[in-house]
Amino acid sequence: MAEATTVRRSRITPEREAELYAAVLDLLREVGYDALTMDAVASRTRSSKATLYRQWGSKAELVVKALRHQKPVNIGEIDTGTLRGDLHELVTREDDCRMEQDTSLMRGLAMAVHENADLLRALRELLFEPEMTGLERMLRRAVERGEIRADNPALEYVPHMLIGALVVRGLVDNQPPTQAFLTSYIDAVVLPALGA
């Protein structure tokens, strides 16, 4: 009788994983998503392409998990007791420099998703859906506290307002988003739209 064999993933330490993710994001900033290859990642990180595929399955999954890794904040866990406090706390979780880098990456990826269904699927499943779930939880708590009405039509547009503020600031004002801008935007646009 033949002995059953199991395929095991090699264990990558958290430090090594962070190093790989940092290299992926550096390459992404340098060459963009389309020109980013698993060969380039393997070369930059002194690892084998086979290891990368075994651990992450695809370039899209690797890129999105790298983005997720650098943004470990779970929006749903933020609970200051008020919606305004929660949204302001969300803004303070990233400094201005990181926010500018993230926004630049997301603009580049937004263009790439039009040509790459795998990237769009990975972004939705691994990045956007967890963020949206957390934001929905935050908004539900605000409804339960009586800060906003459950039937307010602006509720479904909160993600659009927040993402729009991040992405469009550079186009309209030729400036990167900052904590000060986003805090002011939340107070002037998001909270009034919600009737908070």
UniProtKB/TrEMBL annotation:
Ranges of residues in domain HTH tetR-type: 14-74
Keywords associated with the record: DNA-binding, Transcription, Transcription regulation
PROSITE patterns attached to this UniProt entry: HTH_TETR_2 (PS50977)
GO molecular function: DNA-binding transcription factor activity; transcription cis-regulatory region binding
InterPro entries: Homeodomain-like_sf (IPR009057), HTH-type_TetR-like_transc_reg (IPR050109), HTH_TetR (IPR001647), Tet_transcr_reg_TetR-rel_C_sf (IPR036271), TetR_C (IPR011075)
Pfam families for this protein: TetR_C_11 (PF16859), TetR_N (PF00440)
DNA-binding region coordinates: 37-56
Record bears the keyword Cell cycle: no
Gene3D superfamilies: Homeodomain-like, Tetracycline Repressor, domain 2
Keyword Metal-binding: no
Membrane-spanning segments: none
Protein known as: TetR/AcrR family transcriptional regulator
